[in-house]
Specification:
With 249 residues, this protein is of the alpha/beta class. It is built from ten helices and eight strands. The model has no long low-confidence stretch (mean pLDDT 97). Bound molecules: 2-phosphoglycolic acid. 2-phosphoglycolic acid is lined by residues 9, 163, 168-169, 207-210, 228-232.
Length: 249
């Protein structure tokens, strides 16, 4: 069955001094019963990998380029992430879709490159508040899944994160029914496109204002295989109880 995954997205937060949080986490969860992934800014990646080297915690990137190398000032390739110690990369986060105009097609191309570099692609999808209010959520999610996921995925190298844009960093969380509806829909779409074997092995994470206080109930929802956590992943004191809640789910 699917092994659950607690993933932390530090976004544009974290200096060397913050690595103590990671060491604390690795001490508290040396060999957790779930997978744990922390995605720090790229500048910290190799030091973060060192900080968790005595544990089974993995580190990942937050974005990569579609190409393998070349004249792309400021960009980072999947192979570079891998070389720095990453095992996974977040792709198509709504902040990248918004801040950098990333399209489904671009995300799909990045995901293909990441998978070819032996990284797990954590592909994010999610609707805006206007789309939710217009009752378009499933259409939007269906389109993002079809457009953003490359054909080459397996159950192991793809993770899908459902992150309603209006729930990210806002403290607002969808109802458990709303989360369940979207996760069941994503599962059905994955099974339809990739077959039951692959479709049932892909982990589907919920993301958006996951905190120690709401994690357990969210982890009880069908087809929720873990969480992608932003703000509450920055401090071991917040992320540790979320990992424990997932272990208990
Ligand atoms: P949040 O962010 O937990 O701070 O809401 C989640 C995310 O953007 O991945």
């Amino acid at each position: 069955m699917r092994r659950k995954l607690a993933a932390g997205n530090w976004k544009m937060n974290g200096l060397g001094a913050g690595l103590g949080e990671l060491e604390e986490l690795a001490q508290a969860h040396g060999d957790p019963a779930v997978d744990v992934l922390i995605c720090p800014p790229a500048t910290l990646l190799s030091r973060a990998a060192d900080s968790v080297s005595n544990s089974t915690i993995n580190v990942g990137g937050q974005d990569c380029h579609t190409g393998q190398s070349g004249a792309h000032t400021g960009d980072i390739s999947a192979e570079m992430l891998r070389d720095a110690g990453a095992t996974a990369v977040i792709l198509g986060h709504s902040e990248r879709r918004e801040d950098h105009g990333e399209s489904d097609e671009l995300v799909r191309s990045k995901a293909r490159t990441a998978i070819e570099a032996s990284l797990t692609a954590v592909i994010c999808v999610g609707e805006s508040l206007a789309e939710r209010e217009a009752a378009n959520t499933l259409d939007i999610i269906g389109g993002q899944l079809a457009g953003s996921i490359p054909d080459i995925v397996t159950g192991e190298n793809l993770v899908v994160a459902y992150e309603p844009i209006w729930a990210i960093g806002t403290g607002k969380v969808p109802t458990l029914e709303q989360i369940g509806e979207v996760h069941d829909f994503i599962r059905a779409r994955l099974e339809k496109r990739f077959g039951a074997g692959v479709g049932r092995s892909v982990r589907i994470l919920y993301g958006g204002s996951v905190k120690p206080g709401n994690a357990a109930e969210i982890f009880g929802v069908s087809n929720v295989d873990g969480a992608l956590v932003g703000g509450a992943s920055l401090k071991a004191a917040d992320f540790s109880p979320i990992i424990s809640a997932l272990e208990a789910a």
